[in-house]
Design a protein that fits this description.
about 160 residues; alpha+beta; Aminopeptidase; 5 helices; globular
């Protein structure tokens, strides 16, 4: 199967909604109907298309199978770094297409964009219970797990 990586378009919103909802990982998504999810994602993609280049959403297009994965990156300037940090907030692949190199293609595309932008580093937050973490998806590709840092949340 041939895959291509491209920037997400507004017309990808239904496919992205379907993909995210199919994961069953996000309680907020379960609380809203599919049409609402698609409308919300459409709004985000419209906003991102006019943004100042500080966000990137890439999709994996599998031709007749459509969008089968995506990655979202937020380019964050830190005063203490010599270049931006790319925060990889989302990288998901449809279950039926996992293990085919789709995630690696997305990750490689994100790394290439970070290098083009002159970034200092990339970061990602992932659950230790996720299969990708358990099989070392990121660490096997050169990512280093921080042992002294902790991720804290303030729920609103």
């Amino acid at each position: 199967m041939d895959f291509s990586i491209r920037s997400a378009r507004v017309e990808d919103a239904p496919a992205l909604s379907r993909l995210m909802r199919s994961l069953g990982w996000f309680g907020d998504l379960a609380a809203e109907d599919a049409a609402t999810t698609t409308v919300r994602i459409t709004g985000y993609l419209e906003t991102l298309s006019g943004a100042d280049g500080c966000h990137t959403v890439l999709v994996v297009d599998a031709g007749d199978s459509g969008v089968i994965g995506y990655a979202a990156v937020h380019w964050v300037p830190y005063l203490f770094l010599t270049g931006e940090e790319g925060y990889l907030s989302q990288l998901f692949v449809e279950e039926a297409h996992r293990g085919l190199g789709v995630g690696t293609l997305l990750l490689d595309a994100v790394i290439a964009q970070a290098r083009e932008r002159g970034c200092s580093r990339l970061s990602v937050l992932t659950r230790a219970s996720r299969e990708a973490y358990k099989r070392g998806f990121y660490t096997s590709r050169g990512w280093i797990e921080r042992e002294v840092m902790r991720n804290l949340l303030y729920e609103l």
